[in-house]
Amino acid sequence: MLYLTRKVGDSVIIDDNIEVTVVEVRGKTVKLGFTFPENIQVLRRELYDRIQDENRSATASVDFARIFNNRADENAPATSTDTPPAQNPAPDTADKAADTGPDGDETPNR
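RESULT FIELD:
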C-alpha cells in the first residue's frame, strides 16, 4: 500500500488517466474528488465488497442447482427417447408380386 501526505488542492495521478484530488479536510474526514474516464468503474469499498458477496452467493446457488439437477437426472427413470426407434420390417415379397405385370416385369403403381 502506498501512503501519501497531501494538502487540500493537491492531486495524485494514477495510470495517466485517473486523478484523485483532496477537496476538503474536516477533522478525521477527507473529501476526495476523482477525475477518470467513463469506461472506468469507481466504487466505495463497502459497495464493492457487497457486490462481490452477492456475486459469490449467486454463483454458489447456480452451482448447487446444477449439482441438484444432475443428481435428479441420474435417478430419473428411462424415457421412451432412451430406446432406439423400432425398425420397419422388410417389404413382404407377396406385396412385390402384386406390383408386377403378367410377364413378371415391374409396372408403375397408378
